[in-house]
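Input record (Table S2, row 467):
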Amino acid sequence: MEQYDLVVIGSGPGGYVAAIRSAQLGYKTALVEKYDTLGGTCTNVGCIPTKAILDSTHHYHDAAHHFTAHGIQVEGLSMDFNRLYERKDKVVLQNTQGLNFLMRKNKVTVIHGTASFVDNSTLQVVRSAQDSLLLGAKKFIIATGSKPATVPGVTIDKERIITSTEALSLQKKPDNLVIIGGGVIGVEMASIFNRLGCEVTIIEYADHLLANMDHELGDALKRILVKDGIRILLEQAVYKTENMGNTAKVFFRDRGGKEQELQADYILVAVGRKAFTVGLGLENTGVRLDARGMVVTNEQLQTAVPHIYAIGDVIGGAMLAHKAEEEAIFVVEHMDGQKPKLHYDRIPSVVYTWPEVASVGATEEDLKAKGIAYAIGKFPFSANARARAGMNTQGFVKVLADQKYGELLGVHVIGARAADLIAQGVLGLEYEITADSMSRVSYAHPTYSEVMKEAHTLASGRPSVNI
Ligand code: FAD
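Output record (flavin-adenine dinucleotide complex):
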């Protein structure tokens, strides 16, 4: 039986980062992945392919709707759906090949096969019906990720009632699509297919889109998406779907009990994700799961068996690639006897619609619920010269700061390049900077980042010179 210092199960952003960091620190490391390619959900069917298609469809939408305003005439504009998906596949391939390179460079042993615990210290890896091997290790990391969740009455059949995974490998552009769920994945998928000319309806149970973010963001995004042609039905409870052969039906009712149904080429279920531990043999270990099936860990991300750690989507929390990556570094450095830190409240969330939406720290709803006194600085992109030059005037930055001391508590952005701008908010929160200090450094002109400066100025109690 081959012995390692560390065996990591799952090669998503949690697993591959953990394996590389472990090898960098000189540990004999193996990474086990059941699929043929490395990278997990994020690289194969999540972050990367969605952003590739979002970028392509954004160009197409710009060409169709905004180029003429710049004096650019395009005749005979069309979108080749197969080429769009082929480019996406190439982007995914570049990334998975990049991971193969990184594993070789760092001398991580990669084993493709399904891992299952035999006991607390031994893992069986099944590579094929005839081929399996046993691995022993001083430490293990479970990084097996998540799978799409559903709601009662909705069975994902992967044919007409699908998830984002199937939507990313369609052979033909659908004419219409109903998306159950107005969270991050739901609105990104809605943007993609709406830009391609599909009729898109989002059905959401909550009374806001992006219900986990500051509500002003979801409300602003809703207005923009509706203007773009997406139908959005809030406060609707889906209770049944039906595969009709060439189409599918969804049945739902509002809070007053009024029943409705819709028929579409596909029903895309985007109601969240659940931890994936099937077949991992956890019953042969002391590792415990909570009532929702998440692996239970302590603050050091150790399971009930101290030498078995767990990270990423499988332990719940924000199901984000960069959260999994931070946990990976944290765990490996903790194993190494270092004193790493992990601040969950400073992990940003991003939605790659256009405009983008990004957020870090407390929402206004959080502060109200906790009775914390706060000041708000809110500045619109429409008052920014760079945004006007680029015709990207939708949205705003909203800064929340402690009323008494001015320390940043939360930064919320909807607007062009929000995904990149939010890094400033993360730094501000991490180093406990005041809104006043954030506003007193120089921001290049003209840039979108000046909207951040103005919002910080307003949150510090001084007036803006630009509005
Ligand atoms: P995963 O990436 O899920 O990887 C787990 C790996 O473990 C898989 O490769 C799986 O095959 C393997 N595995 C499971 N069981 C076994 C076993 N028994 N033996 C061997 N291998 C096993 N997050 C962002 O931060 N930004 C985004 O833009 C973003 N976009 C997304 C878009 C979509 C459509 C989706 C679905 C998700 C998106 N996410 C995004 C979320 C992100 O993909 C996840 O948070 C991230 O992949 C979690 O990483 P992980 O390492 O925990 O698990």
